[in-house]
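User: What would this chain look like folded?
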Amino acid sequence: RRAVVLASGGMSHTFWPLKELPNHEASDPIHIFTPEARAADEERLEWMKAGDHRRILDTLDDYYPHNPEAGFGHYLMMLGAVGGADCTAPGELFSDYENATGTGQVHVWFPRPEKGWAS
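Assistant: Here's the prediction, encoded as structure tokens.
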């Protein structure tokens, strides 16, 4: 049997105030709410691409000040379904990392490694 787990949610998730929003509507990541939030998102994306999910879990307390959407629950549930901290599946970006009203957005696919989710 095969199954697909879909997890949907943003990365850093702070919206620009309505009065400032017209200045930050473009998708360019320079419009993420803070440079620190963008850096935190990009750091985690690099770890996702490397399959270093344990590091993401180990640094959640460092990430929470950047308000990952819903406490990053979408990622945590997906990861729990495929091995948790032992998962080594490298992520493939299926979209550019971009801004959406101040929030970090991206699509990442985690194909099942030949040797299984955890190694």
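The chain has four helices and four strands. If you want, I can go into more detail on any region.
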